[in-house]
Amino acid sequence: MSARHDELVRTSARLFAERGYHGTSMADIAAAMGVQKGSLYSLTDSKQALLVEAMRGGAAAFHDALDAVAEDATAVDRIRDALRAHLRVVAAQLDVATVFTREWRFLEGGALEEIRVARRRYEERWQALFREGVEQAELRADLDAEAAALLVLSAANWAYTWLRPGTDTDRLADRFLAILVDGWRGYATPGPG
After folding, report:
1. Please, which residues have CB within 8 angstroms of residue 17's CB and are 6 or more apart in sequence?
2. CATH number of the domain to which 109 belongs
3. What is the pLDDT of residues 109-122, one digit of tens each?
4. How far apart are the C-alpha atoms of 166 and 188, rounded to whole Å?
């Protein structure tokens, strides 16, 4: 029963990612699983319950990835590792990452607040990484940690729209970090005139 339930959650997440929450019916989910619609209700209470499970899975995956970042590394290395971890989650769980990023607003009641809290806490953890970089003099002293976290997460969260299968997400994260830390100007020399 548990394996079948897990399959149901995965199938629902895939369809929610492809068609959106409102564009997916229980009949669509049943058809994708090759069962009658009525039999789904032995595995779940509702389509909303499936969305909640997908959201919880997404929240857990992103937080777990951030938990795995080494505490004893430099601040910039921790930011790099956090970005790598985030992009790995998106690549490995594209459907769940898509649903977590895009469909959360269709949650209802306490589940909506639960996921808002999880999302806010994740953002705050990123802000703390940037503040740590400022405090350790690895990042510029006037860096706005809140804006930096929003910039990084905005780019990384939308990776579900452009990330190609087989992309080396660690290399991509390193390239992003080089742009962010070294800046766009870098060592550019002025042009003629």
Report:
1. 94, 95, 96, 98, 99, 102, 160
2. 1.10.357.10
3. 999 999 999 999 99
4. 33
